[in-house]
Amino acid sequence: MRARRLAAEQRLADAGVSDSALSRLRTSAELDRRRARELLVENAELRTEVDRLRGGRADAARRLREYARRGSAMVDASDRSPSTRRDHFVDAEAWVRHEICCAWVERIPACDKAAYPLPTYVVGTDFAASLESRDANKFAKAMKAVVDVLTGRADQMDSREAHRLRTSDAGGSLYVVRDDSAHAMRCAIERNTPSARRLHYWLLPSPRRTQRPPTDEFHLRFDRVLV
Predict the structure, then answer these.
(1) Which of 61, 66, 153, 199 has its CB 3.0 to 4.6 Å from that of 148, i.e. a possible disulfide?
(2) Is the pTM of this model over 0.90?
Protein backbone atom coordinates (compact mmCIF):
# COMPACT_ATOMS: atom_id res chain seq x y z
CA MET A 1 0.00 0.00 0.00
CA ARG A 2 2.77 2.44 0.97
CA ALA A 3 4.82 1.49 -2.11
CA ARG A 4 1.90 2.19 -4.42
CA ARG A 5 1.32 5.56 -2.76
CA LEU A 6 4.99 6.52 -3.17
CA ALA A 7 4.94 5.41 -6.80
CA ALA A 8 1.83 7.52 -7.44
CA GLU A 9 3.44 10.54 -5.81
CA GLN A 10 6.58 10.06 -7.95
CA ARG A 11 4.50 10.01 -11.12
CA LEU A 12 2.78 13.22 -10.02
CA ALA A 13 6.17 14.82 -9.36
CA ASP A 14 7.44 13.69 -12.77
CA ALA A 15 4.34 15.27 -14.29
CA GLY A 16 5.34 18.62 -12.81
CA VAL A 17 2.95 18.75 -9.84
CA SER A 18 4.35 21.15 -7.25
CA ASP A 19 5.19 20.12 -3.69
CA SER A 20 2.40 22.31 -2.28
CA ALA A 21 -0.17 20.73 -4.58
CA LEU A 22 1.16 17.31 -3.71
CA SER A 23 0.87 18.14 -0.01
CA ARG A 24 -2.74 19.19 -0.48
CA LEU A 25 -3.47 15.93 -2.28
CA ARG A 26 -1.85 13.98 0.54
CA THR A 27 -3.94 15.87 3.12
CA SER A 28 -7.13 15.33 1.13
CA ALA A 29 -6.38 11.63 0.73
CA GLU A 30 -5.72 11.28 4.46
CA LEU A 31 -9.01 13.03 5.25
CA ASP A 32 -10.83 10.72 2.87
CA ARG A 33 -9.29 7.68 4.55
CA ARG A 34 -10.28 8.94 8.00
CA ARG A 35 -13.81 9.65 6.82
CA ALA A 36 -14.01 6.19 5.29
CA ARG A 37 -12.96 4.64 8.60
CA GLU A 38 -15.54 6.75 10.46
CA LEU A 39 -18.24 5.68 8.03
CA LEU A 40 -17.32 2.03 8.56
CA VAL A 41 -17.59 2.50 12.34
CA GLU A 42 -20.92 4.32 12.00
CA ASN A 43 -22.21 1.59 9.72
CA ALA A 44 -21.26 -1.08 12.26
CA GLU A 45 -22.92 0.89 15.07
CA LEU A 46 -26.08 1.36 13.00
CA ARG A 47 -26.24 -2.36 12.27
CA THR A 48 -25.95 -3.07 15.99
CA GLU A 49 -28.72 -0.55 16.75
CA VAL A 50 -30.98 -2.02 14.06
CA ASP A 51 -30.50 -5.50 15.52
CA ARG A 52 -31.30 -4.16 19.00
CA LEU A 53 -34.46 -2.41 17.79
CA ARG A 54 -35.61 -5.52 15.96
CA GLY A 55 -35.15 -7.53 19.13
CA GLY A 56 -36.98 -4.87 21.17
CA ARG A 57 -39.84 -4.80 18.68
CA ALA A 58 -40.20 -8.56 18.87
CA ASP A 59 -40.17 -8.40 22.67
CA ALA A 60 -42.75 -5.58 22.67
CA ALA A 61 -44.99 -7.57 20.34
CA ARG A 62 -44.73 -10.58 22.63
CA ARG A 63 -45.62 -8.47 25.68
CA LEU A 64 -48.53 -6.88 23.83
CA ARG A 65 -49.92 -10.30 22.98
CA GLU A 66 -49.54 -11.34 26.63
CA TYR A 67 -51.30 -8.19 27.90
CA ALA A 68 -54.08 -8.71 25.37
CA ARG A 69 -54.49 -12.29 26.53
CA ARG A 70 -54.62 -11.25 30.19
CA GLY A 71 -57.01 -8.41 29.44
CA SER A 72 -59.30 -10.76 27.56
CA ALA A 73 -59.26 -13.16 30.49
CA MET A 74 -60.12 -10.34 32.91
CA VAL A 75 -62.99 -9.18 30.71
CA ASP A 76 -64.29 -12.72 30.47
CA ALA A 77 -64.18 -13.02 34.26
CA SER A 78 -65.87 -9.66 34.84
CA ASP A 79 -68.62 -10.51 32.34
CA ARG A 80 -69.68 -13.56 34.29
CA SER A 81 -73.10 -13.07 35.79
CA PRO A 82 -73.59 -13.14 39.58
CA SER A 83 -75.58 -16.35 39.22
CA THR A 84 -72.62 -17.97 37.45
CA ARG A 85 -70.28 -16.98 40.27
CA ARG A 86 -72.89 -18.20 42.75
CA ASP A 87 -72.52 -21.70 41.31
CA HIS A 88 -68.97 -21.86 42.70
CA PHE A 89 -70.25 -21.73 46.28
CA VAL A 90 -72.26 -24.39 48.09
CA ASP A 91 -73.27 -21.91 50.78
CA ALA A 92 -75.18 -18.74 49.81
CA GLU A 93 -73.75 -16.71 52.68
CA ALA A 94 -70.17 -17.60 51.68
CA TRP A 95 -70.95 -16.37 48.17
CA VAL A 96 -72.39 -13.08 49.44
CA ARG A 97 -69.40 -12.47 51.71
CA HIS A 98 -67.04 -13.18 48.82
CA GLU A 99 -68.88 -10.71 46.58
CA ILE A 100 -68.87 -8.04 49.30
CA CYS A 101 -65.14 -8.49 49.85
CA CYS A 102 -64.44 -8.21 46.11
CA ALA A 103 -66.62 -5.10 45.87
CA TRP A 104 -64.76 -3.55 48.82
CA VAL A 105 -61.41 -4.24 47.15
CA GLU A 106 -62.55 -2.51 43.96
CA ARG A 107 -64.48 0.39 45.51
CA ILE A 108 -62.09 1.51 48.25
CA PRO A 109 -58.72 2.85 47.04
CA ALA A 110 -55.62 1.22 48.51
CA CYS A 111 -54.71 4.41 50.36
CA ASP A 112 -58.12 4.44 52.12
CA LYS A 113 -58.49 0.76 53.01
CA ALA A 114 -57.04 1.22 56.50
CA ALA A 115 -59.52 4.04 57.16
CA TYR A 116 -62.49 2.11 55.73
CA PRO A 117 -62.10 -1.56 56.71
CA LEU A 118 -64.86 -4.13 56.47
CA PRO A 119 -66.46 -4.47 59.93
CA THR A 120 -68.34 -7.37 61.45
CA TYR A 121 -71.70 -7.92 59.79
CA VAL A 122 -74.49 -10.48 59.49
CA VAL A 123 -75.99 -11.77 56.26
CA GLY A 124 -79.76 -12.05 56.58
CA THR A 125 -81.50 -15.23 55.53
CA ASP A 126 -83.29 -13.52 52.62
CA PHE A 127 -80.43 -11.29 51.49
CA ALA A 128 -78.74 -13.75 49.12
CA ALA A 129 -82.06 -14.66 47.50
CA SER A 130 -82.81 -10.98 46.84
CA LEU A 131 -79.47 -10.68 45.02
CA GLU A 132 -79.46 -13.83 42.91
CA SER A 133 -82.05 -12.57 40.45
CA ARG A 134 -80.18 -9.32 39.68
CA ASP A 135 -78.31 -8.87 36.44
CA ALA A 136 -74.62 -7.96 36.53
CA ASN A 137 -75.20 -4.19 36.41
CA LYS A 138 -77.84 -4.09 39.15
CA PHE A 139 -75.87 -6.54 41.25
CA ALA A 140 -72.75 -4.35 41.04
CA LYS A 141 -74.76 -1.31 42.12
CA ALA A 142 -76.14 -3.22 45.11
CA MET A 143 -72.63 -4.30 46.14
CA LYS A 144 -71.39 -0.71 45.98
CA ALA A 145 -74.21 0.35 48.29
CA VAL A 146 -73.39 -2.49 50.70
CA VAL A 147 -69.73 -1.43 50.81
CA ASP A 148 -70.71 2.19 51.42
CA VAL A 149 -72.94 1.15 54.32
CA LEU A 150 -70.36 -1.20 55.83
CA THR A 151 -67.58 1.37 55.74
CA GLY A 152 -69.78 4.16 57.09
CA ARG A 153 -69.45 6.21 53.94
CA ALA A 154 -73.18 5.98 53.16
CA ASP A 155 -73.95 8.33 56.07
CA GLN A 156 -71.76 10.97 54.42
CA MET A 157 -73.14 10.54 50.90
CA ASP A 158 -76.28 12.46 49.94
CA SER A 159 -76.82 10.08 47.03
CA ARG A 160 -77.32 7.15 49.42
CA GLU A 161 -80.08 8.86 51.42
CA ALA A 162 -79.37 6.56 54.36
CA HIS A 163 -82.10 6.90 57.00
CA ARG A 164 -84.05 5.01 59.61
CA LEU A 165 -87.13 3.20 58.36
CA ARG A 166 -90.54 4.23 59.70
CA THR A 167 -93.64 2.11 60.17
CA SER A 168 -95.47 4.14 57.49
CA ASP A 169 -95.03 7.08 55.15
CA ALA A 170 -97.13 9.28 57.42
CA GLY A 171 -95.25 12.13 59.00
CA GLY A 172 -94.20 11.48 62.58
CA SER A 173 -94.78 7.72 62.35
CA LEU A 174 -92.70 5.52 64.61
CA TYR A 175 -89.35 4.11 63.62
CA VAL A 176 -89.14 0.38 62.99
CA VAL A 177 -87.32 -1.10 65.99
CA ARG A 178 -87.06 -4.76 66.92
CA ASP A 179 -87.36 -6.18 70.41
CA ASP A 180 -83.57 -6.39 70.62
CA SER A 181 -83.34 -2.62 69.89
CA ALA A 182 -82.11 -3.17 66.33
CA HIS A 183 -83.02 -0.26 64.04
CA ALA A 184 -84.35 -0.84 60.53
CA MET A 185 -82.43 1.21 57.96
CA ARG A 186 -82.81 2.01 54.28
CA CYS A 187 -80.46 3.52 51.73
CA ALA A 188 -80.66 4.15 48.00
CA ILE A 189 -78.90 1.80 45.61
CA GLU A 190 -79.78 4.05 42.70
CA ARG A 191 -81.71 7.27 42.17
CA ASN A 192 -83.61 9.09 39.46
CA THR A 193 -84.62 5.87 37.74
CA PRO A 194 -88.00 4.11 37.55
CA SER A 195 -88.45 1.75 40.51
CA ALA A 196 -85.15 2.86 42.03
CA ARG A 197 -83.77 0.06 44.18
CA ARG A 198 -83.10 0.35 47.88
CA LEU A 199 -81.12 -1.59 50.43
CA HIS A 200 -82.72 -2.60 53.73
CA TYR A 201 -80.53 -3.48 56.68
CA TRP A 202 -80.53 -3.48 60.46
CA LEU A 203 -78.31 -1.69 62.91
CA LEU A 204 -77.77 -4.31 65.59
CA PRO A 205 -76.84 -3.29 69.13
CA SER A 206 -73.46 -4.46 70.34
CA PRO A 207 -73.72 -7.66 72.42
CA ARG A 208 -71.30 -6.07 74.89
CA ARG A 209 -73.94 -3.59 76.07
CA THR A 210 -77.43 -4.04 77.42
CA GLN A 211 -78.47 -0.50 76.52
CA ARG A 212 -78.59 1.02 73.07
CA PRO A 213 -74.99 1.89 72.11
CA PRO A 214 -73.85 4.73 69.84
CA THR A 215 -74.35 4.22 66.12
CA ASP A 216 -70.67 3.47 65.50
CA GLU A 217 -70.91 0.43 67.78
CA PHE A 218 -73.82 -1.11 65.95
CA HIS A 219 -73.34 -4.24 63.92
CA LEU A 220 -75.02 -4.61 60.54
CA ARG A 221 -77.43 -7.21 59.29
CA PHE A 222 -78.33 -7.00 55.64
CA ASP A 223 -81.92 -7.96 55.13
CA ARG A 224 -82.84 -7.64 51.46
CA VAL A 225 -82.67 -5.57 48.30
CA LEU A 226 -86.02 -4.08 47.38
CA VAL A 227 -87.24 -3.12 43.93
Answers:
(1) 153
(2) no
For residue 69, the one-letter residue type is R
Q: What are the tens digits of pLDDT across the range 6-17?
A: 666 566 556 665
Distance CA 177, CA 184 (A): 6
Residues in CB range of 26: below 8 A, 6 or more apart? 9
The strand pairing partners of 164, in sequence order, are 185
Instruction: Convert 96-148 into a string of H (helix), E (strand) and C (coil).
Output: HHHHHHHHHHHHCCHHHCCCCCCCCEEECCCHHHHHHCCCHHHHHHHHHHHHH
Give CA–CA dist 140/85, Å, rounded. 13
Long-range contacts of 180-185 (CB under 8 A, 24+ apart): 180/204, 180/205, 181/205, 181/212, 182/221, 183/218, 184/223, 185/149
User: Is 151:127 a contact under the CB 8 Å cutoff?
Assistant: no
